[in-house]
Structure formats: structure tokens, C-alpha cells
Amino acid sequence: MKQNAVNPILVILTVLLAVTSFAGVGAVDNPSRITVDYDKMTVTVDGRQVPIIVDYPEGLDDYGRAEFLAEIKYKATRDDTVWVHLPYDRFDVYIDQDYYDSYQDNLTEFFNNFEPRYEHMETLTGWSSEKFYGVKLEINVEPTGGCWGGWAIPGEAHLFLSDPFYKESCENWYYYSGALHESLHSINPFPILYRRWLTEGFSQYNQYNILVDFADISQETADTEIYAGRSGYNWPDYVANDYMDPLNNEIQESAGYDITAYIYTMLRDDHNLDWDGFYSILNNNLETLDKADSMWQISEYYTDTHIIDLFTRTSNAVNSTFQYDGPDGPGWGVRQWENLDWYADLVAELPNPDTTLVEGELLPLIIHNDGGVSLVGVPVALYANSSLIWADTLDVADSSSVMLSLNLGLADGIYTVSLIVDEDNLKIETDDTNNEAVGTLTVVTCYDTDGDGFGDPGHPLNQCVLDNCPSVYNPGQEDFDSDSIGDSCDTCTDTDGDGYGNPGYSANTCSDDNCPDTSNADQTDFDGDGIGDVCDPVCCAIRGDVDHSGLDIDISDLVYLVDYMFTGGSAPICPGEADIDNAGGIDISDLVYLVDYMFSGGPAPVACP
Q: Contact 524/517 with Cβ under 8 angstroms?
């Protein structure tokens, strides 16, 4: 039993949050303290401050609500209450001693019946106080004059139940409804908790539908309660009032939680809303919703309408956003929709849609974010012929790009590659149609531009013989002058290396050699027959004119021949003229013949043919 010194709400003020990611919904990133300010009626978790959730008893006017709020402040801070403790596996109940003494049997029966309904709610939502706030749920119960009312902070639900308990004017199932409502507030993950439309609308929706599963009420009753609304913000009146709430507020400024709950029901029934998908979408768009949340400071637009927008994007709704289309339209219900063109827009790009890579070479990829909100954890995947070969998550700042280079590890072949960003449409975008880039990728072990089976020089990953003409198809790799440049692209095929090219090679840009097999840089052609003298078999004009002067035989011819034969001098330009004895070669007998002719009256050299 709780005694006067300790208020139940103060128990958790110093408890650190044990935060995890649960059922697709992230809570707080790091453990932190919960603090409550009863003067301001706010609760702060991990640096985020939001109003304490207050659900007023039915039928209170503005004065009655103010009195109820003052009662909450008083009861939350007083230290004179005696509490009765009822322990349960998933929560602890603390009941005002006097109230418990008056209705002990009813209250005990009520919470025994409430326990399986609460556990069912934990299962359906995937939420719990321990996982998000590090504490077992605490439910505090005190009397009120109405049927029920309550307030909640993380880890604590405060119920005001009727006195007497089970009043004639209060349907019994409605007590369970209120207890589920406040308890769900207390176990919401904080990304939901600090968005009032979402947490209230979701609680309104669940409190009735969970009771249907236990036959406390029928589905018809649940839908009617959601449709008609208990807070005065019901759907028919909202539509009839030109999509304004009873106080003539537009939806973004309204507290119309019943309207929100009805939208959820409509999406669920008419558009196959996937709740698990919604949690996942919510968790993956906190950066977008947080930016929208900040806009109320500069605009009348309120972020909770983007919660509704988010819901439609997770369903198969015809309209992608809740935009106003008049009283005769489908009733999506935002009169002053503000186009937030800063929504992200992710674009996938293959810089070279059709490219060839050598095995091991890197493929460049680009992910753009053309929107005005920086995204965290964007999923990116690359497929080759429909098979996933790489996936990761990236942070992509607003109005920027992330460039990647990947080693794909693919074998030789031709592949259809698809780069897909945000494949599961987890991120809210202005355009979901540009998230995929498709191209053709050819992977080879030989980087071969001209396709002749030999690889381009300069690619260290090549595993094939290098091409002697990388840009010209030459599968034979012919290189007549053995200079490592293929004949097909050699601008001067020059066998003898004298700077003149062998005739017959179309790639030559140098002059044709008149003696292609014999070096003759001067290209002398004494008889003008197009054949250089050094290789012209008929260049012989005067046999014995060894120095090829064109003059009569004299001592210079003898010196030239001696120098050539004995001291390494230049070879005769026209070999036939140095073959003095016309024996078919140049040897000592030619020297003897020439000396005999010049100095001993020997016979004259045989005339050239």
C-alpha cells in the first residue's frame, strides 16, 4: 500500500529510459531522464518537451476543464494520499484508499478483466512501457463525478473513474475504453507521443477496436463511437461545417481526435492500411515530420496533417494526400493545404547507363536528394539481372548528392543493372517515380575497346595480352617491323629503320622507302628507277667506280675499297660497281684486280650490264 510520503508520479522522475527499437517504431536514441513540470503541465523526454496528455471528462465546459486541470495539478503534487497497490504482471495499479474501500469488489473485478485487454493491446501495437521508458506501467486511480477522465505521461496512466463506480448513466464497457485509452498514451513510443493528433487519434481508434476483440462491444458500436465522436469533433458535423471543427478551426489547428480516429478507420476498412507498415514509415520519416513540426512557428500550418498524409502513403488510398475537395468530395478534409515543396525527392543515377568494366573495376553510382529535407538511413540497392548484389543505407543531405564507386564482383557477361533508392517507399517524397535507374553493364576480363580479343594498354586489371593497336580491330596483331605497334595503326612501318616506310601499308604517313630492307637514309637512286642504289641490282654504271662518283676510275675508288675491306669504312653504295671482277661479290680478288688495272696495265673491269 502506498503511504502519504510518496506520490506515484514522482517515482519515475529519476528513472533512466531503457530505449530500444520495437515493432518498427524507434523510441529515443539514448537513455535519458523523464522530467515533469506541473506548473506548465509539460513532460520532457530526451530533450523534447510536450504537454501532458489530458483527457477531460465528458460534457465539461471551458470552466469545468480549467477546474479539472487544476485538480490534476493538485493531486499530482500533494503528498497526503494513501494508495492501495494491486500488482499485475504487466502493470501495477495504485487506487485511492477511500475509493478502493468503497468499491473494492468492483475495482478488483474491473482490473482483473482489464489485464487481458491491456496485454492484447501490447501485442497489437508492439509497444510497452519497459521497452520505451524503462519502467513497468503504473496505473493510478482516483474518483471523479463524471464517467471517466484521465491524463498520462510516459510510463504512467492516471484514471478518474466515476463515484459511484459503475454509475447508471455510464455504460460499463466505457470504463474499459477509458482505461485502455490512457494506458496506450503511457506506452506510446515518444515519436508518436509528442504528436497529439496521432497519439490521441490512435488511442481513440484502439480503445474501441480492442474491446471488440473481447466482445465488450460490437464492431458496429465501436465504429459508431469513432464516427460520432465523444469530444464533439465528429465526422458528420465536421463535413457539414465545410471541413471545420465545432470551433471553426481548420483541421491543422483542431483538437479533433475523433476525426483522426475516423480517418484511421476509413483507411483501414477502405484502403487496406497496414499498421506494421505505418510504424515503419513513421520511424523512417522522423526527420521529415520534425521539420514539419517546426513550421508552426512560421506558419499556421500544423504538422499533424502530415501524420494523416503519412497514413495515406502507407495505404492504397486514391489520394496521396488529404487535400480539401469540397463537401461533396471523399472527405479527406484539409481546407488550407499548404504544399510543402521541401519534401525530399530521391533520384537514382547511373552516370554511364551503358558501360563496360574489366572484372574488379569500380562502377560509379549517384544518389540525389533534390528536396529540402535531409534524410537519414535511406535504403539503396543494386541489382544485376534481378539478383541483389549490393544494399546499404545512406544519409543524403538536402539538395545534395552521394557518389559511390562499387566493386561488383561480377563474372564476364552482359547484365541489366538497376540502382534503386528507397525501394520499399519508406521515405516520404514528392516524386516516387524517379527512384530507379536502369542500364546495361558488360563485364570482361579483357578491356578491349576495338573488340579484337586483345586488351587496351593502361588497364592494370586486364588479364589478356595487350593490344598493339587498341583502337583498331586487328585480331592478327601483325607487326611487320617488330616495333610493338601493329601495322593497322603504325604510321610508319619501317623495317630497316631509316625513317622511310615499307610500301603497301595503308596506315603509313611517312614516305615510302626505295630500299625497304636496307637502311638508306639518303634514299639515293642514281639511275632514277625508284629503287635505291643500295639495293638496286642494276645501279652499276661504271664497274670500278667504287665511291659511286660517276667519274672515271681513280685513286679515290681504290682508297674507298681498301677502307671498306680493312678499316671498317662504308660499304660501296652500289655493290655492283665494287665487284671489279664481276664474280658476284666483293673480296680480295676485286682489290687485286683493281690494283693490277690501275698500276700494272691489267685488264679493265668488266663493263656494267
A: no
The answer to whether the CB of 347 falls within 8 A of the CB of 368 is yes
Show the cell assigned to 206.
484502439
Instruction: Determine the residue type at 306.
Output: H
| Contact of 161 with 148, CB cutoff 8 Å | yes
Rounded to 5 degrees, φ, ψ at 161 are -105, 155
Residue 139, φ and ψ in degrees, nearest 5:
-110, 120
C-alpha neighbours within 13 Å on the C-beta side of residue 55: 35
Give the C-alpha separation, 246 to 258, whole Å.
12
Element (H, E) at 141: strand 137-144
Low-confidence ranges of the chain (pLDDT < 70): 1-32, 252, 271, 273, 296-306, 309, 311-340, 526-527, 537-538
Q: Is 485 exposed, middle or buried (0-12, 13-18, 19+ CB in 10 A)?
A: middle
- Report which of 602, 565, 569 is spatially closest to residue 586, judged by C-alpha positions: 565
The alpha-helical segments, DSSP class H, found in 59-96 are 62-77
Residue with cell 524517379: 434
HSE at residue 192, side-chain half, CA atoms within 13 A, is: 30
Provide the CA 416 distance to its chain's centre, in angstroms: 19
| Cβ-proximal residues to 94 (8 Å cutoff; 6+ apart), any chain | 2, 8, 83, 84, 85, 86, 138, 139, 140, 141
Count the alpha carbons within 13 Å of 480 in the hemisphere toward its beta carbon.
21
According to DSSP, the β-strands at 148-153 and 156-162 are antiparallel
pLDDT tens-digit series, residues 420-455: 999 988 888 888 899 999 999 988 887 778 888 888
Q: Supply 482's cell numbers.
A: 617488330
Rounded to an integer, what is the distance from CA 408 to the centroid of its chain?
A: 17
- Write phi, then psi, for 347 (nearest 5 degrees): -130, 130
Pairing of strands 375-384, 413-421: antiparallel
Q: How do residues 65-117 score in pLDDT, each as one tens digit?
A: 898 898 888 888 887 789 999 999 999 999 999 999 999 999 999 999 999 99
Report the DSSP beta bridge partners of residue 417: 384, 439
Q: For the chain, first and last CA: distance in Å?
A: 140
Tell me if the pTM is above 0.90.
no
400-406 and 413-421 beta bridge pairing: unpaired
